[in-house]
Amino acid sequence: MTALLSFHRARKGAAGAALLLVACASLPEPVGGPPTTAEAFFLTGRIGVRHGEEGFNGGVRWTHTSARDELWILSPLGQAVARVTGAGGAVTLVTSEGREYQAADAASLTREVLGWELPLGGLVYWTMGRPDPASPAEVRYDGAGRLTSLVQDGWEIRYLAYTDQPGGGSLPRTLSARRGALEIRLTIDQWAQP
To answer: How far is CA 32 from CA 35, 108, 182, in A?
Structure first.
């Protein structure tokens, strides 16, 4: 928590400290089996952010559909730290103080409010083990046809582990996305349909 706040303080000063949302907020629970397309998924896992000398480790809960994203960033103890929602070309981030910030994309909004960039648009595809079809990418695959690395939109994504899925196929378990001094590491503990 302190490390996340230092990101924010470095960018916004003491006025924007503490990024705790309502700790008692209800979070969605997974329903059904693993996702079959990037159109809809629910995942829970862990996120680690390193930006220069600063860092944050916590949890993540993300519901993605073709119409909406809702991503919760959680403290190591499971308390809500920030909530990012996106729908209809607008993204909203809510802080613990109840302040709402909006922008056209999650990357610029999180960079402004949190002090580090969350590339939500690309992550929709990268977490599924595929490049975003909207922009060019350099890709490498292993012998099983799974991505081992890709470079897209200035990000270098490395796939560190996969999880076999019931009925065949596999989905990424751990991936690292790096851009300059910023690295986001995502470990997915559970996949489900929303």
So the answer is: 9, 33, 34
